[in-house]
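Annex B. Sample input.
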Amino acid sequence: MLFSIWFSSALVKVNFTDVARSNPVNLNSMSYFEAVVRLGGVAKAADEMQVSVSAVSQQLRQLEQQLGVSLFHREKRRLALTIDGERLFQTTTTAFESIRDVRNAIMRQRESFHLSVRVSPSFGDCWLAPRLADFIRHNPRWEIRVDATPNFSDFATEVVDLDLRYGDGSWAGLHSSCVVNDLILPMCSPGYLAELRAISQDPREQLHQARLIDSAKAYFRWNTWLPRHGVAPSKPGFPYRFDRSSMSMRLAIEGAGVALESTTIALDALLSGQLVPLSPCFEAIEFPAYWMVCPHRHVSRRSVRLFTEWVAETGQEHTARARRFLTDLGFRFCLDPRPHLLPGA
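Annex B, continued. Sample output.
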């Protein structure tokens, strides 16, 4: 049934205060009334509110009974606002429009997230950054700020939601959960491996003669790895030492020496052939290396939870891929869950 609505240009003040005091305002009926006038008909209002036409008509009658006034002139199949009806509509449509705006803003905010992440530099550059594009494609409403720095977050003074940090998981007073396992092994460029094999076919002798690239802040360094595997370096100390694993990896790619590095940082280079494992006679050491760290109160934040779940799931896929790659080359694996207990680490 089609209704047409007529609006009077005159604005007459109607006082509903006394009525409202004795009868609480029926917001449900008013929402039906506002929809009928705004949309221009009872049928359209019923469609928007997903109810029957008779339900809308009943709400209109109840509202008029409650207010004690007529809101419409009913003329056959036409409805026209009375002066009281027009005044009520001017008020209700403004109020409900404001409510709709706030509701929509809340819905948009619920669907979007603001996340501030601090991350270990090499992990951020070599692992997180290449994978963020996939996360953003599936979560286009997120706003993410990533700060790659060796400095751990001071959650008491800095606005940081979580820290993705290389370590052993022991951060006093904070929540920590492992998100990525590391696989550690010696690796170098194919060209440099050919040079070492020209010297000897024994991998231990190759390492004895090799230029060793040291990652100064790694848990597994040459000074603990070499004695563990019965290898003595030809010279004390190391000619190349870097505080970033990404720099050690880059130097190894350029053929400058052998790096004791992780597949977390170097898997893409290994898969592309830029780097090769020195020898499967040395097992790959696996340990929980990268952690999500934050105050316990941050764990309940939906953005922190969803992002951490994505990092952990992606990390598991990455580690599984690295294990398959090394298994195909004949590597064995040694699980070392507490690398900080190694001598000199």
